[in-house]
Amino acid sequence: MLVPDLILHHGRVTTLDRSNPEAEAVAISGGIFTAVGSDKEILALAGPKTKKIDLKGRLVLPGLIDNHLHIIRGGLNFNMELRWDGVKSLADAMGMLKRQVAITPPPQWVRVVGGFTEHQFAEKRLPTIEELNAVAPETPVFILHLYDRALLNGAALRAVGYTKDTPNPPGGEIVRDAAGNPTGLLLAKPNAGLLYATLARGPKLPFDYQVNSTRYFLRELNRLGVTGALDAGGGFQNYPEDYQVIQKLADEDQLTIRLAYNLFTQKAKGEKEDFLRWTQNSKYKQGTDYFRHNGAGEMLVFSAADFEDFRQPRPDMGPEMEGELEEVVRILAENRWPWRMHATYDETITRALDVFEKVNRDIPLDGIHWFFDHAETISERSIDRIAALGGGVAVQHRMAYQGEYFVERYGPKAAQATPPVARMLEKGARVSAGTDATRVASYNPWVSLSWLVTGKTVGGLSLYPSHNCLDRETALRMWTENVTWFSNEEGKKGRIAEGLFADLIIPSADYFSVPESEISGLTSDLTMVGGKIVFAAGDFVSHDAPALPTPVPDWSPVKSFGGYGGWGDSEKTVAQMASACGCAHSCNVHGHNHASAWSADLPTDDLKSFWGVLGCACWAV
């Protein structure tokens, strides 16, 4: 037995290892778990140079792995984006916007690029164009809401050059006033290409700034307990040009998340040529355990892309879909490349499966880890066909952000199994979970775990009956060991067990015992990847990784607001409130835990006055 480099002890370790489900301590050497057991067993392995960390009785979980995250694209832009993810009211969101406008120099834009829904706001609405113009008369403002619309103020319209003479692109609409002039509202009908193309007209960060931006995005994910992710490519994410930043970080050993990436074709009718070139120039699995190639997708061919805008009718794929998809899938199967395919509706999945089964008759797909992404309306028949062909389904929490729109169009009964996660697991299908961040949903993994457990949207709508909700351990497995099949890393990570990568987290509260309403508010107090602590806070802050260089540019929203929920700013606000607190004694409601009380999901719209209404002394100032 190796003498451990590090021992973590006095913890409550949920290993997800069925042969050893609970432990008190772990030993780590060379970035690998070398022993998992009781304090007595593990501490006895220590040598004179072994570092020991007392976990103070805290819960320990395997690191979270996102099965579908646009992490490479998100990193290039993170420092430029004002995040409304998790913000509770439109008033607060607009306050953030106003402050950011005040410090953003021309010709830069203020961008809110997805990760939120109007239903999360107490006001249950988006800002108006008039409100944006009032806050920002001269600074361009671009707000992307899910994949359905974008809001541009007058300055942004001028910056992108849209006029009454600008034609509507296929699948999109530039909304106009009675005189034919653009109002600032852009609609996906249902293709989000107009929204993305407009965003792409904005200024970009220089290369060194993109490196800094990506490091801050990685740290933000580490703060939330993410230790691994599968990158699903994305629109306007060209290979290899847009992979140079992440490759540099990988080469310099600065990645703090294990990343498996898929290659996403960028040009309609040019998909076959892309994959012919890539399969000749790239090798499946090339790279390291921190940055490695994971196959093709999520876009295989544009003719099969059924965009998930539930505010629009379901799009029918054209008759050319099968032929174009077959050409690409044959290339991938011949080269033994796995693939992932975006598919929202069962109608698309059914037609794609016809193609996959046809290819399988000539080129057996056995051993190729291919799967569908999203699959909100997948049928039992399609689940069975996927299983018979050896594939999987990667679900994401898009319904947590779009559930209200789905119900509005299709009704509450149709929404009860969108997707049918519990049923897929019951049938033994390969299923895992993720976010599809950063645009259509937030990158916060705890929101996804909350959605899986509660069946509720971030706006509080109950979508699923209890039989389509998961218990907490099953939901956790969806975010850990289940994901490893999708990156062909089974037996390497996803559990806390001897011989696996030493990736783990200590959540800020006990995931298994906090009220369901508090799951989405969890973060990580310690995140470890490969035996290295990449983030620490609270009880473990003294173990935190070295500070990153200051965010750049100096007007970056990250500098003022942090990330999810504006945490960087809210901490300052809560500290100011706490220092002004007039309590002369310990509050018996929440024990002076001002931060928890301020951010709690309480049954009222006005969180700030709620405890005062009940007479809590903590807010009687």
- Number of DSSP helices? 20
Mean pLDDT: 92
Unreliable spans: 570-621
**Largest sheet report:** 6 strands, mixed
Record field, number of beta strands: 23
The percent range for helix content is 25-40%
Structural class: alpha/beta
> Mind telling me the C-alpha Rg?
24 Å
Shape: globular
Strand order of the largest sheet: 3-2-7-21-22-23
Q: What gap, in angstroms, lies between the N and C termini?
A: 59 Å
Strand residues, percent: 15-25%
SSE map:
Layout: E1 6-9, E2 12-14, E3 22-23, E4 25-29, E5 32-37, H1 39-43, E6 51-54, E7 59-62, E8 64-69, H2 71-77, H3 90-103, E9 110-113, H4 129-135, E10 141-145, E11 149-152, H5 154-160, E12 172-176, E13 182-188, H6 193-199, H7 207-223, E14 226-231, H8 244-251, E15 258-263, H9 271-281, E16 291-296, H10 321-334, E17 340-343, H11 346-362, E18 371-374, H12 380-388, E19 392-396, H13 399-410, H14 421-426, E20 431-434, H15 445-454, H16 472-478, E21 504-507, E22 524-529, E23 532-536, H17 557-561, H18 567-579, H19 594-599, H20 607-613
Provide a descriptive summary of the structure in words.
There is one protein chain. By secondary structure, the chain is of the alpha/beta class. The strands form 5 sheets. The chain has a 6-stranded mixed β-sheet with strand order 3-2-7-21-22-23, with helices on one face. It has a 5-stranded mixed β-sheet with strand order 9-10-11-13-12, sandwiched between helices. A hairpin with a 2-residue loop joins strand 4 and strand 5. Helix 7 packs across helix 8. It is globular, with a radius of gyration of 24 Å.
